[in-house]
UniProtKB/TrEMBL annotation:
PANTHER family: PIRIN, PIRIN-RELATED
Organism: Roseateles saccharophilus (Pseudomonas saccharophila)
Domain Pirin C-terminal residue range list: 199-302
The protein's name: Redox-sensitive bicupin YhaK (Pirin superfamily)
Family, per entry: Belongs to the pirin family.
A Pfam family recorded for this sequence: Pirin
Residues of the Pirin N-terminal domain: 55-134
Length: 324
């Protein structure tokens, strides 16, 4: 195996990631048309032992994740297809859709709901998204919570010779393209030395591309190859549904196989601090986890003013974000 490939592993559920990332969840649900309540027109599939084409998750009427808490890390939600309705204990709401990204700094604590309204009553409502959990260093785990929208039209893309790169955070060095939106101020991504990058790559069948080196010393880079057939990395053929860590101190050649390939690239300098995770909380010690549960019981991390725990924003509204 060439020096450029550090490790290859199969993608599980969820996807295991490398420091400073914690985990990545990938959702692909082929929902049916929506009913008047923005839920599915038919009941959830009940096949035993088979992979279901769509899931309600914890939603009862509308699919999704009703109000739940977080502390000590950030979520980066990248929507590829479908619509997400956000509501939180800070009083913020948003509706975002294919191509948009939401960056939520949970910090000292936030409660939010992520619902997937089925807005089209006539056609299927496919939902596809990544949710990446990015760790916060100990100094920022109790930062003020906040959220930020990266709208699709503000996220730079670079297309060349059969390769389409979307740079959600981190610059594609050596290429003349607009700067990505700025991450939240207390994010690890805002640290000048973090060398953080989150990119999505689409590679046409047979296309060849030189993945540029990272600039930072000590940076790690992982390629989550989730769609396609095979991808040859510096001469080594890797099957789809693989997590590949590569040495990012040098250029790495990617050559695609017979089907369009899709890759999520995660890169950053490790935080290299203890990680203790329990449920929705990620801290550095078990005592801090206990304190998180205690604080949540007493404060609920703010004021949940939405009346229900699974709010959606109706059938008429387009993409928006409000912090009122």
């Amino acid at each position: 195996m060439p020096r450029s490939i550090i490790s290859v592993a199969r993608l599980g559920t969820p996807w295991e990631t490398i420091d400073p990332f914690l985990v990545c969840a990938y959702h692909l649900d082929h929902y049916p048309p929506g009913n008047a309540d923005l839920g599915p027109v038919e009941p959830p599939p009940a096949e035993a032992g088979a992979r279901k084409p769509w899931r309600m998750y914890f939603g009862q009427t509308v699919p999704g994740f009703p109000a739940h808490p977080h502390r000590g890390f950030e979520t980066i939600t990248i929507v590829r297809q479908g619509v997400v309705d956000h509501s939180d204990s800070l009083g913020a709401t948003a509706r975002y859709a294919a191509g948009d990204v939401q960056w939520l700094t949970a910090g000292r604590g936030v409660v939010h709901a992520e619902m997937f309204p089925l807005l089209d009553p006539l056609k299927p409502n496919t939902l596809e998204l990544f949710q990446i959990w990015l760790n916060l260093p100990a100094r920022d785990k109790m930062a003020e919570p906040s959220f930020k929208m990266f709208w699709a039209e503000d996220i730079p893309r670079h297309v060349e010779a059969g390769v389409d790169v979307t740079c959600i955070v981190g610059t594609l060095h050596g290429v003349d393209m607009q700067e990505p939106p700025s991450p939240p101020s207390r994010s690890w991504a805002s640290d000048p030395g973090s060398d953080l990058a989150v990119w999505t790559l689409k590679v046409a069948p047979g296309a060849r591309w030189q993945l540029p080196a990272a600039l930072g010393s000590g940076t790690r880079r992982q390629l989550l190859f989730f769609k396609g057939s095979t991808l040859t990395i510096d001469g080594v053929c890797v099957d789809a549904r693989s997590a590949i860590e590569v040495d990012c101190s040098a250029v790495v050649e990617l050559v695609n196989g017979s089907k369009e390939a899709e890759v999520l690239l995660l890169q950053g300098r490790p935080i290299e601090e203890p990680v203790v995770q329990h449920g929705p909380f990620v801290m550095t010690t078990l005592d801090e986890i206990r304190r998180a549960y205690e604080d949540y019981r007493h404060t609920r991390f703010g004021d949940w003013s939405w009346g229900v725990y699974d709010p959606n924003h109706g059938s008429k509204r387009g993409r928006f974000a409000s912090t009122d």
